Amino acid sequence: MIKVGIVGGAGYTAGELLRILLNHPHAEITCVQSTSNAGNPITAVHTDLLGDTELSFAPKLDTAKVDVIFLCMGHGKSKEFLTENRIPESIKIIDLSHDYRIETPGNDFVYGLPELNMEAIKTANKIANPGCFATAIQLALLPLAAAKQLNEVHVNAVTGSTGAGQKPTSTSHFSWRNNNLSVYKVFSHQHLGEIRQSLKQLQQDFNKPVNFVPVRGNFTRGIMATAYTDSDLSQEEAIQLYKRYYQDHPFVTVTDTNPNLKQVVNTNKAIVFIEKHEGKIFIVSMIDNLVKGASGQAVHNMNLMFGVDEKAGLRLKSVAF
């Protein structure tokens, strides 16, 4: 069994990790750390797990009990934690923050998008889990970049309120978010850096703009990203290009039917839809921001790192209504 520790166990991504790992055939949760909830039952925070676990939050991570650590803290906190705590090299690390996603000198984390870096993930000791917007948008664009067919891109993506984290803010509480929509961080969202990095990994001379307009949605979870770019490909050529790229990636489905968000919510699925409109390829990419965009992808990375079935623990079902 893979012994799992979670640091920062009270947030949304940690709650999703717990839900997945409690039903994982090859994993055992041995330590869930939370400074703010130390000593409290996990179910006092993650109430959906009532009846599923008797674990309590620990004040500190016990490294003697774990094979892998998931870091589920705010951006900047993971780097701080790893600076202040000596983690044995035998323990694998999967970081869900933004701290190690961008390649810099001395950064030995592998960018953990399986549909891009599967072979590198299998031999990695440290993984930087991608951002949720970044995951949805990259899955919409990677096949074109791999075929050196990517031009200037225009992206609009809508995310649920859980993407902002558990701590209430002026733009995440119910009375503001409900029956409301708003645009934010236009052309400047923090996930653009990792998106550009991945696109250039596949299409080295790519230097065109990625024009990204993020939108706060009035729903809890899920991301719908729509993108378009100039292309000489026919619709059938584009669809076949996407199907070939994702043929060995079990969590991405290329469909010829315009999808809806409920098809992916509560699952580790990504659904990608392609249409040709005059001289442009139009792509829809849908994921659950907390699962495929965060915790489910992190477990997928763990499965690859430990050599178990990559789908283990991730056969999650969507809810139609």
UniProtKB/TrEMBL annotation:
Top-rank EC class of the record's enzyme: oxidoreductase
Location relative to the cell: Cytoplasm
Pfam family, one: Semialdhyde_dh
GO BP terms, alphabetized: L-arginine biosynthetic process
Gene Ontology MF, one: NADP+ binding
Entry annotation: catalytic residues: 132
Keywords noted in UniProt: Amino-acid biosynthesis, Arginine biosynthesis, Cytoplasm, NADP, Oxidoreductase
Domain named Semialdehyde dehydrogenase NAD-binding: residues: 3-124
Record GO cellular component, one term: cytoplasm
CDD domains: AGPR_1_C (cd23934), AGPR_1_N (cd17895)
EC number: 1.2.1.38
Catalytic activity: N-acetyl-L-glutamate 5-semialdehyde + phosphate + NADP(+) = N-acetyl-L-glutamyl 5-phosphate + NADPH + H(+)
Pathway assigned in UniProt: Amino-acid biosynthesis; L-arginine biosynthesis; N(2)-acetyl-L-ornithine from L-glutamate: step 3/4
Residue ranges that the Swiss-Prot or TrEMBL entry lists as coiled coil: none
InterPro entries, A to Z: AGPR (IPR050085), AGPR_AS (IPR023013), AGPR_dimerisation_dom (IPR058924), AGPR_type-1 (IPR000706), NAD(P)-bd_dom_sf (IPR036291), Semialdehyde_DH_NAD-bd (IPR000534)
Similarity section: Belongs to the NAGSA dehydrogenase family. Type 1 subfamily.
PANTHER family assigned to the protein according to its UniProt record, in alphabetical order: N-ACETYL-GAMMA-GLUTAMYL-PHOSPHATE REDUCTASE, CHLOROPLASTIC-RELATED, N-ACETYL-GAMMA-GLUTAMYL-PHOSPHATE REDUCTASE, CHLOROPLASTIC-RELATED-RELATED
Function, as annotated: Catalyzes the NADPH-dependent reduction of N-acetyl-5-glutamyl phosphate to yield N-acetyl-L-glutamate 5-semialdehyde.
Protein name: N-acetyl-gamma-glutamyl-phosphate reductase
Organism field: Saccharicrinis fermentans DSM 9555 = JCM 21142
